TrEMBL record:
<feature type="binding site">
    <location>
        <position position="199"/>
    </location>
    <ligand>
        <name>Mg(2+)</name>
    </ligand>
</feature>
<feature type="binding site">
    <location>
        <position position="48"/>
    </location>
    <ligand>
        <name>phosphoenolpyruvate</name>
    </ligand>
</feature>
<feature type="binding site">
    <location>
        <position position="175"/>
    </location>
    <ligand>
        <name>Mg(2+)</name>
    </ligand>
</feature>
<dbReference type="GO" id="GO:0009401">
    <property type="term" value="P:phosphoenolpyruvate-dependent sugar phosphotransferase system"/>
</dbReference>
<protein>
    <recommendedName>
        <fullName>Phosphoenolpyruvate-protein phosphotransferase</fullName>
        <ecNumber>2.7.3.9</ecNumber>
    </recommendedName>
</protein>
<dbReference type="GO" id="GO:0005737">
    <property type="term" value="C:cytoplasm"/>
</dbReference>
<feature type="domain" description="PEP-utilising enzyme C-terminal">
    <location>
        <begin position="12"/>
        <end position="284"/>
    </location>
</feature>
<keyword id="KW-0963">Cytoplasm</keyword>
<comment type="function">
    <text>General (non sugar-specific) component of the phosphoenolpyruvate-dependent sugar phosphotransferase system (sugar PTS). This major carbohydrate active-transport system catalyzes the phosphorylation of incoming sugar substrates concomitantly with their translocation across the cell membrane. Enzyme I transfers the phosphoryl group from phosphoenolpyruvate (PEP) to the phosphoryl carrier protein (HPr).</text>
</comment>
<dbReference type="GO" id="GO:0008965">
    <property type="term" value="F:phosphoenolpyruvate-protein phosphotransferase activity"/>
</dbReference>
<dbReference type="GO" id="GO:0046872">
    <property type="term" value="F:metal ion binding"/>
</dbReference>
<keyword id="KW-0460">Magnesium</keyword>
<keyword id="KW-0418">Kinase</keyword>
<keyword id="KW-0479">Metal-binding</keyword>
<dbReference type="GO" id="GO:0016301">
    <property type="term" value="F:kinase activity"/>
</dbReference>
<keyword id="KW-0598">Phosphotransferase system</keyword>
<keyword id="KW-0813">Transport</keyword>
Length: 316
């Protein structure tokens, strides 16, 4: 039965009553593109460009090398959306030429956008390479920054994009609770939000995502995490802008329905999850997703939230 459901699953992501939720792929580079196309991804919701930089931690890849890699991904989705995240180095992904060597708490130190603002040359080269890679292609390019903490960060990133002559939408990832709390202010500077639920959970619960002993707190069904997601999605709706999810949360089919009910406007995940999420979302109406989301938020633990959402969707 599951096989049949998956075989029947194709086309754009939507609820059973036709509320569209684009299903996008997370990719690390051109090598991940065939699987994304095969799964019927409607574009890329998170291009993790740091993989290109991890080959050589001594220096950034040349502009030419970057253009080549970006262009291969952009070309694969003509008319589609491609959301590129600028380099997210530091913490679990240190780079010698960017990351300070002796930080006591690297996850709370100079990482993500912070290291790029400290090395404007690296950011400028990446943005210029992206502008050149997109030249002449019909693709709908969006560029976002990781680890945006506040409006000042969002403005600094948008200014850098404008200065590089990038013709694209600029966005901010919501990975730090302060960004969710002040999402409307951030949206005065950028055109879209994308929730990085892995880091958002890490920072909301003070639970290192690399430490298995605290994995209970990293569960994306945690009601407090759902509250932060709802807050961001509501802010985007109020500003008439979009708010996607590109963290692991989007790849859980049941949670994908809850995220849709919370007002999230697109879901990006590893390509292998797309058919499952598409098939599950197609079974429920938007109103059912909204009721499941409300039930999950009313719970007191991740486990209760999951059970409550499941109960609503199976009509118990
Ligand atoms: C996240 O933090 O949820 C995210 C999508 O970014 P990464 O997993 O690459 O840190
Ligand atoms: Mg992250």
């Amino acid at each position: 039965e599951r096989k049949a459901a998956l075989a029947a699953s194709s086309g754009p992501g939507a609820t059973s009553d036709g509320h569209k939720v684009p299903l996008l792929a997370n990719v690390g580079g051109p090598a991940d593109v065939p699987a994304a196309v095969e799964a019927g991804a409607e574009g890329v919701g998170l291009f993790r460009t740091e993989f290109l930089f991890l080959d050589d931690s001594k220096k950034a890849p040349s502009e030419e090398k970057q253009i080549e890699s970006y262009r291969k991904v952009l070309e694969a989705f003509p008319e589609g959306r491609v959301v590129v995240r600028v380099l997210d180095a530091g913490a679990d992904k240190p780079l010698d030429f960017l990351t300070p060597a002796d930080e006591p708490n690297p996850a709370l130190g100079v990482r993500g956008l912070r290291s790029l603002l400290d090395h404007p040359d690296v950011l400028r080269t990446q943005l210029t390479a992206l502008a050149k890679a997109a030249e002449g292609l019909p693709v709908y390019l969006e560029v976002m920054a990781p680890m945006v903490a506040d409006r000042t960060d969002a403005k600094a990133f948008a200014d850098a994009c404008r200065e590089a002559g990038l013709r694209a939408k600029f966005g901010a990832m919501v990975e730090i609770p302060s960004a969710a709390l002040r999402a409307r202010a951030i949206l005065q500077e950028v055109e879209f939000l994308s929730l990085g639920t892995n880091d958002l959970a890490q920072y909301a619960f003070a639970a290192d995502r690399q430490v298995g002993a605290v994995s209970r707190l990293q569960d994306p069904w945690q009601p407090a995490l759902l509250d932060l997601i709802a807050m961001s999605a509501e802010a985007a709706r109020a500003e008439g802008k979009s708010c996607g999810v590109c963290g692991e949360a989007a790849s859980d089919p049941l949670l994908a329905c809850v995220l849709t009910g919370l007002g999230v406007t697109s879901l990006s995940m590893g390509a292998a999850s797309i058919p499952y999420v598409r098939a599950t979302l197609a079974k429920y109406t938007l109103a059912q997703c909204e009721r499941a989301a409300a039930a999950a938020r009313a719970a007191d633990s991740a486990e209760e939230a999951r059970v409550a959402a499941q109960a609503v969707l199976s009509g118990e």
